[in-house]
Structure prediction request, 567 residues.
Amino acid sequence: MRNFTIRQIIAGVAILLLLIVFPLVVSQSFNVHVMILVFMFGMLGVAWNIMGGYAGMFSFGQAAFFGIGAYTSSYLLIAYGINPWIGLVAGGCAAAVVAAVIGYPCSNLRGHYFAIASIAFAEIVRIVFNNWQMVGAAEGLSLPMQNESFANFLFNSSKLPYYYIMLAFLLVSLAVSYFIATSKMGYYFRAIRESHKIAEVMGVNVVLYRLMAIMISAFLSAMAGTFYAQYILYIDPGSVMLLATSVQIVLISMLGGAGSIMGPVIGAAILIPASEYTRVALGYKGTGMDMLIYGLLITLISMYYPEGVWKLFSRLGRKLK
Amino acid sequence: MNKAICLKVAGLSKRFGGLAANNDIHFFVEEGEIVSVIGPNGAGKSTLFNCVTGFYKPDSGNVFFFGKDITRMRPDKVCNLGIARTFQIVEVISDMTVLENVTTGALLRYSRIKPAMEKAGEILTFTGLYEKRDFLGTELTIADKKRLEVSMALATQPRLLMLDESMAGLNKVELREIIELFRKIRNQGITLIIVEHVMEAVMQISDRVVVLNSGKKIMEGTPKEVCSDREVIQAYLGEKYCAILK
Prediction:
């Protein structure tokens, strides 16, 4: 479908090199932290995009998958001493299984109805965790201090390893997204997004392909969740399962460009720094100026680039050919 | 030598509340035939199509495709077995190009994009849309959209193609082209069932005609027989039209 030209490959490699060098040059820890958040929300956006952008299932419940990933790996580590890297995979699988169980009865829901169901689902998950004593209920879970090492997925002295791990996660999710977009699955997802009828009449098993989209999306979101837990070392339902997080993921993907491969990453690269830096610069005044500026930015983007900022970038990309 | 029975509809009924949209319908189609289903609006033609292709579950009766019972089978499975169809209101994927639309259909028989796209190219050449392969679904005229929908159906490599009003709204030239296309499709060995209101076309290309009225089959026969049947004339064709035809 899409073959990259030499110039585009060079541009991609250049951006990647810049990102690798960035934390070595910009040493201020807050800047590195913002970039880690950009990568993390970029990954969450890419995951949302697989079900929301490609297959047209507008989920407002991604925080549930994120939270399930964070809780699975953390609980396994605290209760059984299981390595977080194994917890990462376990969390992904747990989220995918939950996604399949909840996705199957929602097979016929489309558009607004699917969105409403996804909100209900995520809120149920949050309330369950808020009251579930085994996983700390509303108090949440604090991760144990261990020796700093890659094997333990834990680093105290520097944010750099987290930065590179999250960048690698983002690249993995982009590779998955690219592979889907250029394969049979991607074509079938787009047919399903247009209408179930048209997909079925071309022999597509709609229920099966929708489940695949949800499960892949859940798995990737849960990976980001495990990362968050290992990075912040404390999780509770109020931080990893918020509706506000789900909404932010949709916003990032939509404003970046739903349905495109890079759109969600571009959305995260614009919205996350905008929200973080305005918060730091103006948030302490308590006047809500930061939210006003952030809101204005979102309004402007949706007015001038309703299909996503990605459109602007793809025009630049075409000039590179 | 007798030809194989491609499709057999036996006692098919479908009710919507108090309305019998299809009431005990029997007919069969031989392999390689072109059979038209005609009748006034609300006669149950589209319901019949939907029951055969799995979009509706019939209340009673059976549908056999080359001897295999396909009653109440899911639409994607029906398609997989070799029945493709189009819709009365055209359905194409609006943000895909013509080539991508047809490729999606071809992917039923291929797991990789490249061979599917090659097959799609062949089909577009066959249906005469190849020049417009890079147009988006939304950019096409109604005539081209209908042609695209037929191309997408052909891409699934069916043995039976069911066309729901593919000629409605076309001008004379477009009509002649699409009739020519249907003959070409039949010559490839694909059986055709068409629902149509454009009588001059129906009479030209059909081997047999099935007439529905108020959910029941009122007549079946060659175009000539159908035209001289009193009940058909009263229910649907009208005196004037048949006078012209004779």
Summary: Residues 6-319 of chain A form a domain with the ABC transporter involved in vitamin B12 uptake, BtuC fold (CATH 1.10.3470). The first helix of chain A runs from residue 6 to 25.
